[in-house]
Amino acid sequence: MRFGIILAALVALTFPAMAADLGPMPTKAAPGEIYAARNWTGFYLGIFGGYHAGDIKESGCVGLCAVNPKLEGGLFGVQAGYDYQFSNNVVVGVFGMVPLVFPDTTINIGCAGCDFHTDGQYVVIVGGRLGYAWGRALPYVFGGAGFAGVKIHADVTNVTVRNDYVGPALGVGIEYALFPHVSVDARYTYMSLPKRTYDFAPPGNASQIGETSNNFTLGINYRF
């Protein structure tokens, strides 16, 4: 599987650099002082895993229709970004996340041979974040856009329709410095992809399909 080859290469390239950097912990601050792990200014590259809980939104269906279809499953991918820390500890940054493994689903509308198979083609999330450096922790909020390509195949008509989506991606997170150049990053992302038209024939029986989702991820970053 091509995703497995990509992920293996990323792990092989990233973790030796991390291991070489795992030196002794920085000296503890004096009592009453806030420990400053490092300045957050700089580029970072990492990997993440998590869970996608999506609700498929549909309208325009006539006849047999799915009831509250879901799109749920694991996520695994890469992330990168750049942060700048001001003298008052406010941190602003830009980032991108690319899930390389994400869930697909099969939707049945109540009859044999009436399955609809979703196949995710790609997912990309880009945005900006605003945080505050507090000791080793960097709590933050973020906003941006999610992009996705989805292909759905209808067994009953043997028709495949593909659409591209773009919608808002918003959330909160906290990054924590483990070592001078290694941090963990936990975040929650809400993403909404507006409905797109899927006409599986006969003409005039088109459905409008979109999705809203809650995404929970935990990543590890190497900060340069």
What would you say about this model in short?
The protein has one helix and nine strands. The chain has one helix spanning 2-21; strands spanning 42-59, 70-85, 90-101, 105-108, 115-132, 137-154, 159-179, 182-198, 207-223.
Domain count: the total is 1
Largest sheet: 8 strands, antiparallel, barrel
Number of helical segments?
1
CATH class label: Mainly Beta
Helix content: under 10%
- The overall pLDDT, averaged over residues, is 85
Structural class: mainly beta
* H/E element sequence: HEEEEEEEEE
Q: Explain this structure to me?
A:
The protein has 224 residues and is mostly beta strands. The chain has one domain (39-223): Porin (Beta Barrel). Helices cover 9% and strands 63% of the residues. The protein contains 1 helix and 9 strands; from the N terminus they run H-E-E-E-E-E-E-E-E-E. The protein has an 8-stranded antiparallel beta barrel. The protein is elongated and about 60 Å long. The two termini are 30 Å apart. The model is unreliable at 1-36 (pLDDT under 50).
